[in-house]
Specification:
This protein is α+β, with helices and mostly antiparallel strands. Residues 6-25 have low confidence and may be disordered. The protein contains five helices and twelve strands. The strands form three sheets. It has a seven-stranded antiparallel sheet. A three-stranded antiparallel sheet has the order 3-4-5, with helices on one face. The chain is globular, with a radius of gyration of 17 Å. The longest helix has 16 residues, at 189-204.
């Protein structure tokens, strides 16, 4: 049994492969074809940075130019990496917010990676202001033997009524949970989300000091939370899947 999963999605054959989105926490009916209106998606997703074929995202070799032929290598550290990038990207798509998925080639000691983020708009994403972001590594991550990291920057932007409750506007909290559900085994996804959100909330309430490190194990996944201004979560396998 694998603990980082590839959700099974029904494919349709168009210019891109179309799938049913995973069930969303916010209860809204997901679109049957998330990539059907490709040109219209420019307003809320970085579709100019990749092409979708057979439930895989293909990027340009250097992340900026050339043919769309580069995808992550599942033989290195994470056999599920391509399906996870696809599923997580689809889980975050929202017509009123911005989902950025981009590839960064290897540079010096930094391995090649895909960065996935959710923001209020493209302008926020371009300025680096993201509600949260994932990094999917092609090789071993720089800390804790990680193959995925998640940084929860701020799940609150404008709704003051939400701030006093749990420092999270409903859409950002729901999308964080949707993406975790898209990545992890159904036996562990709820517990992983609860751990991630509780650490985010403690940080938002200034109850966690910088430098704090907490470790948890969920099935075959080790999670290390390290607080550096905001919490970053490092995911690694207990044993090779």
């Amino acid at each position: 049994m694998k603990f980082l999963k590839s959700k099974s999605l029904a494919a349709l054959s168009l210019a891109f492969i179309v799938t049913l989105m995973p069930q969303r926490v916010d209860g809204a009916s997901p679109p049957k074809d998330p990539f059907a209106n490709y040109m219209k998606m420019y307003d809320y997703a970085s579709v100019h940075k990749y092409r979708v074929i057979n439930k895989n995202l293909y990027f340009q070799k250097d992340g900026q130019s050339g043919r769309f032929e580069r995808k992550m290598n599942p033989k290195r550290i994470n056999p599920h990496v391509n399906s996870q990038i696809y599923n997580a990207t689809v889980s975050l798509l929202h017509g009123k917010y911005y989902t950025s998925t981009s590839y960064m080639p290897k540079m010096d000691t930094i391995p090649s990676r895909v960065i996935l983020s959710f923001s209020p708009s493209e302008a926020y994403a371009m300025s680096g202001s993201t509600a949260f972001n994932y990094i999917f590594y092609d090789e071993q991550g720089d800390k804790y033997n990680s193959h995925i990291t998640l940084t929860t920057s701020s799940l609150w932007y404008t709704d003051v009524s939400e701030l006093n409750k749990d420092h999270a506007e409903a859409v950002y909290k729901a999308k964080l949970q949707n993406s975790i559900n898209a990545l992890f085994d159904e036996n562990n996804e709820k517990a992983i989300f609860e751990f991630v959100f509780s650490e985010y909330l403690k940080s938002a309430k200034r109850q966690t000091k910088d430098g704090t490190v907490r470790k948890k194990k969920f099935g075959n996944i080790n999670v290390v939370m390290e607080k550096r201004t905001v919490p970053t979560f490092y995911f690694s396998y207990v044993r090779k899947p």
